[in-house]
Amino acid sequence: MSHTGETNTGPTTPVTPHAVTADVTPEPARHAHEIIDPDGRPTRDKPWIIRTYSGHSSARASNELYRSNLSRGQTGLSIAFDLPTQCGYDSDDAIARPEAGKVGVPINSLDDFHVLFDQIPVEEMNTSMTINATAMWLLALYVALARERGVPLTKLTGTTQNDLIKEYLARGTYIFPPEASLRIIAEMYEFCLEEIPSWNASNICSYHLQEVGATPAQELSFALANAIGLLDLLRERGRFTPEQFQRSVGRISFFVNAGVRFVEEMCKMRAFVELWHEITLERYQVSDERYRRFRYGVQVNSLGLTEAQPENNAWRILIEALGVTLSRDARCRALQLPAWNEALSLPRPWDQQWSLRLQQILAYETDLLEYPDLFEGSVVVRSKVDELKAQARAEIDRILSMGGVIGAIDNGYMKSALVRSMSERVSRINTGEQIVVGVNKWTDGTASPLVGGEDGGLFTIDDAAIRETLHSLERVRATRDEARAKAALRVLKEAARSGASMMEPSIECALARVTTGEWARALREVFGEYRPSTGVDGQRLGLTGDRVDMLRARIDALITTLGHRPRILVGKPGLDGHSNGAEVIAVSARHVGFDVIYSGIRLSAEEIVRSAVEESADVIGASVLSGSHLELAEQIMNGLRAEGAVQHVRVVFGGIIPIGDFAKLQSMGVAKVFTPSDYDLLDIMEEITALLEPET
Amino acid sequence: MPRLDDLASADIARAALTRGRYPVAKLISLVEDQRADAAERRDEALSVLEDAAAERGHHGRIIGLTGTPGSGKSSLLARVANQMLATDLQLTVAMVAVDPSSPTSGGALLGDRTRMNLDPAETRAFFRSQASTTALGGLAPSTYTVCCALTFIFDCVIVETVGIGQSEADIRHLADKVYLVLAPLGGDEIQYLKAGIIEIPDAFVINKWDEPAAAKTFHQLRGSLWLARPLDGDRIPIHRTSAKNGYGIDELARALVDDVRQSGSSSLETKAAHFFASWVQDEWGRAGVRHLDTTLGGAQAFLTGQRGFGSAQAEFERSVRAQLRS
Description:
The complex is a heterodimer. Chain A is built from 25 helices and 17 strands. A five-stranded parallel beta sheet of chain A has the order 3-12-11-10-9. In chain A, strands 4-5-6-7-8 form a five-stranded parallel beta sheet. Chain A has a five-stranded parallel beta sheet with strand order 14-13-15-16-17, with helices on both faces. In chain A, helix 1 runs parallel beside helix 3 (110-116) and helix 20 (546-562) runs parallel beside helix 25. Helices cover 47% and strands 10% of the residues of chain A. In chain A, helix 10 links the parallel strand 10 and strand 11. The model of chain A is unreliable at 1-21 (pLDDT under 50). Chain B has helices at 9-16, 21-32, 39-56, 73-87, 143-151, 167-174, 187-195, 214-228, 249-263, 268-295, 298-304, 309-325; strands at residues 61-67, 93-99, 108-110, 125-131, 156-162, 177-182, 203-206, 238-240. In chain B, strand 7 (203-206), helix 8 (214-228) and strand 8 (238-240) form a beta-alpha-beta unit.
């Protein structure tokens, strides 16, 4: 997601760590609370780029949404792609069908891009694409679109997210092994530096790390270690002159999270700015200040948004936005806010508009942008920033001593550290040590009128949209020059094998109407697919006490009833890769005495069924956050029926599942549904255990 | 309630002989059943399998795959098993992966499946996870019986265990051939090898051959084998693989397929005594062992008079109960 090109707005004064009076000539007229323009007059800053992360259903529906958002005052685009596009599958692939158009827009070919950007001038747009494993492909499509429209590439500004490290750790839409992934990223930097100089080839993301539980020090250190890994690689590859390398340091940009502890978050951002300034000088000897600026965009925290009393999320989002805008020296360059009801379902246009208005009020109504940095000279802020920096430095050193981010992913260190932070967070909430209003405190309240309404406050996807996508895909396959498409794929594979840049071959694939699935399959054949370590090993939960003991006794009793220790298969069907919910369930289930078969992420319904049957699982726990729970439940239940196992396995679903779908799931045979409001892990374990106990 | 009781155990066994996925899984659950009254059902099922194998005059072979945590053996197993299936289009393979249980809760996290990537449509392969029931790893009490049952159905049964502590001894008794998987090591760690686990394996696999220290480890291991096993040290194969980039997988898969095809059936009889004694120890403790050794003349002698392992278990239970009552 996010963040802006060089062309943008945002604070114009270089941000320096020890920000400073040195560049201000003492003008008697100047007040410390004023921002002075080059002509010596008081002024105010331009606002950050205002975006909304959006896209759904089909290229046409998303195009309409973007044009309406732009007309309402949004100043940049942030494109959400659906999971098949992110994982490199065509919409009609078996594993893709249930997910097509669900969490973003499906893009199968250049024809879809022409529809997506219809009547939107790409040369005037700052376009951010949340795309990772297939980032090179989506950039190739954007370049091909510009070429077919006759737009010079130098006019394109925007970002491809393209951070595979955080995909391995947190987000899950990786395809290729680390070496191949990093090579793709490096080739994009090498292509963009001269060809599309205002394009951010990647965003170093700490956003997703916080979403899976990272502490501020972990967010700082993991992201900075990630950036170090990337720059070290670019230097080692030796394709840049020293001057080009300095500029490439200036192209590194970040995508950060901000939680509700907004003072600490503001300090975290100042720590980021200072550490980056120091690292680029110490490690890379970048002398030009411009190339050492910490440029970042933000999407504020979704992890802390609650399903209970969802209207409270509006305040949380506001407070989180303050964390990344209050301090001028560490202000974001682009901001995306989630919608208040994100924990319930995908947002409707009105929900997105409400978040957009928050940004506009903050940027245009308030006086925020009239002042220099508000925290300059604060002893409290200085001390907190120093503490965060020291913790982050120590952690960066630890990661570098393991061989950098790749080493610390291979040995499971970073993943385990995140899983541990998350399980600590969950236990703090369970014990009430960490207060979440409306969840573990002040839970009684008047029902919200916001979730009433005809649609129940929820967004649903129109079936016609997916038919249109599939139709367009068939048309492309039927009408393209087949020989050109085949040749383009052959050249792409040759480049992948030989080590030559895959960027131009990918652009030719785009122009030749190769499809997303074909592009990814060609590279899968060369690079293989990656399965990272799960992070569930060796984790402990702080759950103890009578309830745990009683539950363990109940599970021991089941050994006599069942003839074996109860077995639960935990896995994530479908393409959504947010694995931490499933991991916490797996760890909890073992903690109370289940034998847990953890089967990982990105599984087809067939794979889940096969595993459950072969393992004689008593329970299947399927976690789905992508909105595909109905299709997946149907496939799983049908699969169990075909194997003759359906009466012997209890199926439970967890994830972001609207209450309206509970009855449908139950009628399919799903025994229990858990949502984010079921935050108490022991409650969940007790309910699952009860499913196996003889009725009394 | 998920119960196995709705089909007669002989029927389950007969259905499992054609490798139906669900019947095979039910058969394993039946064999694993920890309840006191399960012995007879187990006996019934095993008898059906034993008779069928006797008729065919042939049953499968057991391969042990053991290695230290971090040696990458699950990823290796995934690649090698898929390659074995591709190398020999008639071959059928069952895999049993054993992981340690938590000492506090008794539960286990069985994660080896994550790496398998088995084609859901592949009917020649079967994968099952088992909890060892102890914290140190090694085999579960029922691993032997489960593997025996599977040899009557599959050409090859691969048992994967964490190789630390005393588990090596058990795996040697269970498997016809033991492969020890190693990751490239530093010089000091090779000393540890000399001391203990180098004695047991029939073959070694240095996995992660893509890593820089791999070649050095190979030479050190070869040197250590000369010292530790002067009689056969030269002949012990050391395979070199990388589950990451596929190096050496073909060759290892070929060696395994050849072993399965050329060496014939697993010699279950010689294993039975060891596992029967350890089953008696687990189920009946010292009193049971005394009964076996004094009244029944020891595991070997007792088994000779029995129709099979399942019958022997059922018969022993009757006998020991009778004695305890008297």
